[in-house]
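Minutes, project check-in
Item: structure for the 201-residue chain
Input as provided by the requester:
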Amino acid sequence: MSSVWLERITAFCLIFTALSGTESSGVVWKDVGGQVTIQCKSSEPEQEYLTLKKGLNEEFQVLYKDKNSGKNTIAAQFTGRLQLNGVMPNVDIFITNLTSNDTGPYWCVYKRFDLASHDTKIMKGTGSVLLVVTDATQQCDLPNKSLILGSVVISSAVLLCILLALLTWFILKNKTSGNSVKPRRVTTNDVYEDMRGTIRR
């Protein structure tokens, strides 16, 4: 993935995370092979399930923790790299050996079954982060300089041709309008006749 697109995605995710309210903890920058701790916490102690989701729309489930059974379900790409510490609802999630594919927003989502309303209550906890994993050894590919130079030269030549065409058209239009003979308007008064010659007779 090019660094320009990575920066754009990071900026978009940063804005999205910043606008999501007090539940976000900010942006975490890590190097490839590093580690990160995501501290999921909930203000309500009666939470039964914790899900760590990844993506802007929370489309990828990284971890599912069931408080009652003690069962943890970890996504295949995080197996062996994810560890849990703490007691529900306050859980520290430790991810090691980070890769560039781990970049993205991570959300702490809690669920509990409400006996009064017989409904499942879903709420986001605090500790959600935007993780940006960078590869310090990867160099940005510089675009071909001759391609950029060629594009600039061609664009300049096209612009110059357009300006010359407009200038030529303007000069020819003014030259032809100056050479055209406008008909003279002779003021004649046909109603009255010159009577000076007839009176002298």
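Outcome recorded: The radius of gyration is 39 Å.
No further action items on this chain.
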